[in-house]
Amino acid sequence: MGFDGRSRSGRIILGTRGFVSRGSSHERRRFLMKPRTEKLVNAAFVVALLVGAGLVGWRAMSLSEPVATPEVFSQPVTFRQALERSAEQGKPVFLVATADWCGPCQTYKRHALASPAVKALIEERFIPVLLDVTQGSELGERLKIESIPATLVIKQGAEADRRVGALSERVLLEFLRRASGG
Q1: CATH code, residues 71-179
Q2: What tens digit of pLDDT does each residue of 110-127 get?
Q3: 28: closest CA among 37, 36, 19?
């Protein structure tokens, strides 16, 4: 289906363009454009839409640039090592799954996971693990991580709780306190 105005979305876009470029139907009767001028106005409108959409897309991509690993995850630990430490120390595992291309993941790492209060609580009560699923992950599949960012608490080798999405600092602190029993 071409962009000829026959589809509903085509009619809406062309109708919007017509209203913007020529005003209401009452206005149109007073000011009729010559066919060549109307074609130029149409082309300018389409170009403006494309440039605007490109700028919005570029801005969205720049917001999701990878963020440095939050300090609480500064000492890389594998999931297996975390489970062993969890058994030894009696602390649950706190796992966050993210990807470099994920905008909400970068926001989560930049804000809530970088919070000094969150860092202190995680270090005191959990074994932290950051799981990067940028290139896919066998562990991610095994843990059934279908959306990211995903935040999991694992107690005694089994998932105890999970949240999906970028949590605010307040919500993350509540989640951590509840998951650690205090």
Answers
A1: 3.40.30.10
A2: 999 999 999 999 999 999
A3: 19
